[in-house]
Amino acid sequence: MNIPFIDLKKQYSRIEKQVRSNMDAVMEHGAYIMGPEIPALEKKLAEYCGAKHGLGCASGTDALTLALMALDVKPGDAVFTTPFTFFATAEAIALLGATPVYVDIDPVTFNIDPAKLEKTIEALKGSDNGYPLPKVKGLTARGIISVGIFGLPADYDAIKAIADKHDLFIIEDGAQSFGGEYKGRKSGTFGDISCTSFFPAKPLGCYGDGGMCFTDDDKLIERLRSHRVHGQGPDKYDNICLGITGRLDTLQAAALHAKFDIFPEEVELRDKVAATYAELLKDIEGLTPPSTPEGDLSVWAQYCPLAKDSAHRDRIQAALKEKGVPSPIYYPIPLHLQTAFKELGYKAGDCPISEDTAKRIFAIPMHPYLERDAQEYIADAIKNA
Length: 385
What we know:
Layout: H1 8-29, H2 37-49, E1 53-57, H3 60-70, E2 77-81, H4 88-95, E3 99-102, H5 114-124, E4 140-147, H6 156-166, E5 169-173, E6 181-182, E7 185-186, E8 193-197, E9 211-215, H7 218-228, H8 250-281, H9 310-322, H10 352-360, H11 372-384
Parallel strand pairs: 2-3, 2-4, 4-5, 5-8
Antiparallel strand pairs: 1-9, 6-7, 8-9
Helix pairs in contact: 1-8, 3-4, 3-7, 5-6, 8-11, 9-11
């Protein structure tokens, strides 16, 4: 059996007619840049997650960059974030000249640990509590970028309380968690600005790159709109600030309209696939399947169990490879140890939970159309390892 990691072909077979019809409409009206499909999608997705405003953009990375620009992040600012995420989360901070300050993760959810967030903020403000900081002098605490890793939103009650206490903004990096819920509230509503990605492998993905920002703040949405197109002002040839070319393509928006029609159903199907995995994997010695806190909903962007140790993971991956099952690692090197951030001076041991998780975690196929017999085949391969 050869099992794809994500089966986009099966999804496309359901929506092919609508995708083609939507794209044909774009070709007919010819508004390839900022066509009518863009504001319609912004409104539709903002309403879905419960935000006042949506802003389509060119990628999830651009969404983060635009959010930081709109919040006037600059050199000398410290932005607290997790080291256990994709590089773009911290890259956007550094590209604006600010400094990512890493906070270790919760060992169960893999999201930023609020207790450690509080201690790290206190350390930056002068507390001698031993929490690791970057070797950059004179930093000012400005904000937090939290991540809904693998589809599960972070602990936002605790994060919001900390942000309010220290007068920090929150950017929700929901690149993997759009469609997920925290205490009945959908991802996309937990930050001063919330961001997501429409990379094809995401739960709601397009056929290229794309992203979106969400906010309830009328002033921030105007700043986001300006930064999205070179800092454009009311007069399109009078630029009032610096910006980027961050527009979402109209053709990608057309595809997303078709994909969103089945997205709520796909979220339910993903949760059923995850429940089947939990059942099949629960009694395998040394293996820890992922779990979701009571009252929350993961959209299961990835399904990532933990092996007992790195040797156990090696055996599992070898067994899966032999059976034709992909098992990539998300993420093998925490951000605080990556070469691009070596000048910050972090070292091994500074974020021990992230480092241990990186040695044990692996992903197995996850998509809405994964059938039980394929899941049993995968589980058997893991058991035999």
